[in-house]
Design a protein that fits this description.
Elements lengths: L1 H27 L1 E5 L8 E6 L2 E6 L2 E11 L5 E8 L4 E12 L2 E8 L13 E7 L4 H7 L1
Antiparallel strand pairs: 1-2, 1-8, 2-3, 3-4, 4-5, 5-6, 6-7, 7-8
C-alpha cells in the first residue's frame, strides 16, 4: 500500500512540475522588444512552442532545438539560431523581472555562468510589446 501511495504521490508531483513549466512558458508567449535597440527592431517573438524568432540588426533567425529549464534560477534557455547561411549555438539565462520585463544574458561561444555576470556574455532587457500581442495570438 505504501508503494502505491508513494508512486501516486510521485506521479502527481512530477505532473504538477510539468504543468508549472508549461504555465511559465505560456506567460512568455508574445513579442519582446530588446530595450535600447529600438532602431534595429531587435526582438524575440515567441508565437508558440514550435515558433520562436529572434530579430537583430534587421536579420530574422528562427530558434531551433531549444530547451527552457524553468527549474533553474535564473531560467536556462539554450537554443540554436538558424538563418539561410549559418546556425549558431547559444546558451542563455532568463529572469522575469516583472509582468512585462525579462532580463536575458546570452553566452555565444563561451560557457554559461550559473548566474548573471558582467564578466561574460551579452546582457539585454526585453519589454513585452503591447502592440503585437493580439496579432501573435491571432496567428495561432
Amino acid at each position: 500500500m505504501k508503494k502505491i501511495l508513494s508512486a501516486a504521490f510521485a506521479i502527481l508531483f512530477f505532473s504538477a512540475t510539468g504543468l508549472g513549466q508549461a504555465e511559465k512558458f505560456k506567460n512568455m508567449i508574445g513579442k519582446w522588444d530588446i530595450v535600447g535597440e529600438e532602431g534595429t527592431g531587435a526582438n524575440l517573438t515567441i508565437v508558440d512552442s514550435a515558433t520562436i524568432i529572434l530579430t537583430y540588426m534587421g536579420e530574422q533567425k528562427k530558434i531551433v532545438n531549444y530547451k527552457m529549464d524553468f527549474s533553474k534560477s535564473p531560467y536556462w534557455f539554450d537554443f540554436a539560431a538558424a538563418d539561410s547561411a549559418s546556425t549558431i549555438q547559444v546558451k542563455s539565462l532568463l529572469q522575469v523581472v516583472g509582468d512585462d520585463v525579462i532580463k536575458w544574458q546570452l553566452f555565444i561561444d563561451e560557457e554559461r555562468s550559473p548566474y548573471f555576470t558582467a564578466n561574460a556574455g551579452e546582457l539585454f532587457y526585453l519589454k513585452k510589446s503591447r502592440s503585437n500581442s493580439g496579432a501573435i495570438a491571432a496567428s495561432r
